[in-house]
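Box 3.1. Reading complex inputs
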Amino acid sequence: MSVYRSKTEGTNRFHDDLYGNDYACQPEENACDTKDNQYAPAYYDNSFSPNFGEASVVQTADEFSYMEQESAEVIWVKESCNINVNSTDTQIGASLQAALQLAISIVIRLSIADSGDEEAVEQELMQTISASQVNKQKIFIYNTKDATVTTTDTDISVNIQLLLQILIALVIMIDIL
Amino acid sequence: MSESSKDPMMSNKVVEVMVDSIFRKNGIKPEEVKNNLSEKQREMLKEMVTDLKAQVEEFQEKKNESKAE
């Protein structure tokens, strides 16, 4: 652990001292393999070095924003009757989120139109709420009568709230609202 | 999570400071940015934001309603 601590202090050495950082990360990632791999340079030819797990610590300028969202819903209704399934909320949420993201980028693009900064600004804003979300719902209804099922997505509404706050802050800052 | 739309999960001030710091970091001055927009664009953006805000509020309300049922 002490090795890890002392190395991470120089986090911005990520590029000129890539291997050094690998050593630094390893003890936490897979402690038991450390001794075997520490002096085997061939190991680092593998592009999926343990370093990747530490991305948030060693972030540098060429890091990119990544927002992934996946919502999958499977609803099975079998040998049943009078089943009422309502999943519109989830769908509205997804499109609302897309609309908000679009709006943020429109505002940035229009107002910071004159430079290459717009992409950087947009990325940074999105990054703060960047989230990799995978929501998978499976609903199985079997041998049932007269049931109502409503699906919602809590994560998406949190995201929407945040996006709206960012949009409003942005718009206030450039004196539109 | 039990926050309603009236009580945002992240303080508006935090978001404001964040946006401001990102602007600063990229050397963007709000005063200059204001001049990039025409009056018409300004109006359109304002409408867009108010519209989206209303939609989000409606969405959150609906969600809270269905939770209460």
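In summary: The radius of gyration of chain B is 17 Å.
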